[in-house]
Amino acid sequence: MTNNRKQITQTIWFGICTLFAVMTIAVLFLLLYWLIRGGAHVLSWEFITQAPRSNMTAGGIRPAIIGTIYVASLTLFLSVPLGVFAAIYLNEYAKQGRLVRIIRLSIRNLSGVPSIVYGLFGLGLFASMLKFGTSLLAAACTLALMVLPWIITASEEALKSVPKSFREGGLALGATKWQTIRMLVLPSAVPGMMTGSILGLARAAGETAPIILTGAAYFLPQLPSSVFDRFMALPYHLFILATQHSRVADVRPLAFGTALVLIGLVLFLNMGAILIRNHFRKKRTW
């Protein structure tokens, strides 16, 4: 192949990649423009800080924002330790063989299971069998199960990225295996672990199907006072305003405003993941 032909081929593929990147960004900006055009005018301090009034045709979305933060925080508390320690066991302690490969394959397949299936499972296990009822705790446990495959996979990939020489050096200096992992391996793997965990949390914060079945309520006059109370959440509130409300046309601007707040919350979590990753990467000395 001549140099000119190679140059033409490279130019064509560069153009195709650029075209698809531009199309992806254009779709994102088109979506944001559509939401901002429909809901920017309802965003106000009152909309953020007050409860819905008049059958949710007026007022704000404060209970839904607080409920989303509650369930997302509890999901993070339940899923991250379990996911990180499972990844440490699979990558550092488990004897690599057919059984571990089957476990990894199962974990990856679980990440593709539809969220409504997790909702049905959470309804049967947490709400009914364990007697949590339809509550904040049942919803958080269900979401934690849903994001667990993401956290395990991201944490294991972060552990694999740490050079083997770190482990060999720690063991050669007389440290135990756990001391080597805790002092040398984990600090280097934290950026990848944190990024995967927060991205999984961002997905959980935007899910509707699992929380409909396990704890989210249509409307509540007060905030949940314990983990066994029901709660309002932004995704479910948006679903009700957009499809189930008796005056859909009247509340459509509120639905657009709720969608903007939800997207802002997810973008905030994603930005947090990027900042945390960059912070810990700067501390690397290799």
UniProtKB/TrEMBL annotation:
Keywords: Cell membrane, Membrane, Transmembrane, Transmembrane helix, Transport. The chain crosses the membrane at residues 12-36, 64-90, 110-130, 136-154, 254-276. It is found in: Cell membrane. It holds the Pfam family BPD_transp_1. It is a multi-pass membrane protein. GO terms for biological process: phosphate ion transmembrane transport. Its main location: membrane. Residues 65-273 form the ABC transmembrane type-1 domain. GO terms for molecular function: phosphate transmembrane transporter activity. GO terms for cellular component: plasma membrane. InterPro entries: MetI-like (IPR000515), MetI-like_sf (IPR035906), Phosphate_PstA (IPR005672). Belongs to the binding-protein-dependent transport system permease family. CysTW subfamily. This is Phosphate transport system permease protein PstA. It comes from Desulfuribacillus alkaliarsenatis. The lineage of its organism: Bacteria, Bacillati, Bacillota, Desulfuribacillia, Desulfuribacillales.
